[in-house]
Amino acid sequence: MNGVHDMGGMQGFGPIRPEKSEPVFHARWEGRMQAIWSALGTWRKWNGDFGRQAREFLPPAEYLGLEYFQLRYAQVVELIAGSGMATRAEIENGRPAKGTQKAVPPLTAGNVTAWFANGNPKRRDIAVAPKFQAGQRVRARNINPSPTRACRAMHAAGSASSSVTTACSSSPTATPKASARSRSTCTRCGSPRVNSGRGGAAE
Fold first, then answer.
1. What does the alpha-carbon distance between residue 54 and residue 58 come to, in Å, rounded to a whole number?
2. How confident is the model at residue 13 (pLDDT cuts 50, 70, 90)?
3. In terms of pLDDT, which residue wins out, 26 or 161?
4. Angstrom distance (rounded) from CA 117 to CA 120
């Protein structure tokens, strides 16, 4: 997780100034972007980890220069093009290529209300025990960019090759891209992370 998006504890980005009576969306296009993001998720072309990675792997200068919904737009473009749902040319001109087969979206106007009412829980019950126990000392490899969701503070605490920390309380989480992953919270910065079973070892 040692990338431009991991800003916990970093200095030099200026003060945070909360906006009083902040609206949900500052512009109409932001609401449309959120609707597009929600609708795309119903196709189940990617899981949460893969979707997050599309945003985190944006070039640092681009990542830092975009606002929240601008980042969401950039993320959506990468995911749509990467999954083959549309080409970049189709996204740019807003028209499907000739001969493209029309698909029926899983989320239609008639079932939007019911879909949102049911929510989108991320917890999945699977028969896989956590790899580490809460309170157990573990060693995390210092991999850049890191696929282990280990935060920057944990990397900084150890040597250039690895660092020792305490295992967080975790529960198994299944995703389409991996048979078993565990989601936990960093003991140093409180940020959620996913352990794919790579890059960590018990002390």
1. 7
2. confident
3. 26
4. 9
- 18 DSSP assignment: P
Q: What is the CA radius of gyration of the chain?
A: 20
CA separation for the pair 178, 198 (Å, rounded): 11
DSSP assignments along 149-177, one per residue: ---HHHHHHS-SSEEEEEPPPEEEEEETT
Rounded distance between C-alpha atoms, residue 90 and residue 110, angstroms = 27
What residue spans define the domains of the chain? 28-97+105-118, 137-202
Tokens, residue 91 = 């996204």
Beta-carbon contacts of 141 under 8 Å, excluding residues fewer than 6 positions away, are 148, 161, 162, 199, 200, 201
Q: Beta-carbon neighbour count of residue 32 at 10 Å?
A: 12
What pTM value is reported for the model? 0.64
41 DSSP assignment: H
Sign of the torsion angle spanned by Cα atoms 79, 34, 38, 195: positive
User: What is the rounded CA–CA span in Å between residue 77 and residue 73?
Assistant: 6
SS3 content of the chain, % helix, strand, coil (to 5): 35, 15, 50
Model confidence at 172: pLDDT above 50: no
φ, ψ dihedrals at 116, nearest 5°: -70, -35
Is residue 68 a contact partner of residue 31, using CB atoms and an 8 Å limit?
Answer: no
Angle, in degrees to the nearest 10, between helices 68-83 and 28-41? 40
